[in-house]
Amino acid sequence: MPKFMDVHHGMHGITDEALRAAHQADLDIQDDEGVDFQRAWGDPDSGMVWCVSEAPSADAVKRIHERTGHPATEVYPVPVEV
Amino acid sequence: MPKFMDVHHGMHGITDEALRAAHQADLDIQDDEGVDFQRAWGDPDSGMVWCVSEAPSADAVKRIHERTGHPATEVYPVPVEV
């Protein structure tokens, strides 16, 4: 299944607890779109968050993030990885 | 050790082989700055590449990437992770 990197802006002050809650909200409904959210990293100062997922499409990733209230600013396919 | 997400722009057409070679070049000299590059993902269409590392500082990450010829556009600390 294709892999994606999605990018969120504006999540200033994000905490471990808040990121875990947001990630869990995604996990709770990801099966609806066949998405598998794997990892997420956040920078409280810049408000940036990145998530790596496997999904049928970028739109599937976007729909899950929109439904859980933290829409991704950008979703990129990442077919290349080391 | 702090973790960082660095972002590269302009790497259009990046292949698995090219990303592996770039990553290996970083690994070869990363000890000079105490950096540990862990993973990297690339999107050949947008030319974006992201790397996750552990390092003493963002500047240490930048210096390694500059010396190996693929300077990072941005380096963010990512103290928050799931």
Automatic annotation (TrEMBL), chains A, B:
Gene3D superfamilies: ORF SCO4226, nickel-binding ferredoxin-like monomer (3.30.70.3090). It holds the Pfam family SCO4226-like. This is Guanylate cyclase. It comes from Promicromonospora soli. The lineage of its organism: Bacteria, Bacillati, Actinomycetota, Actinomycetes, Micrococcales.
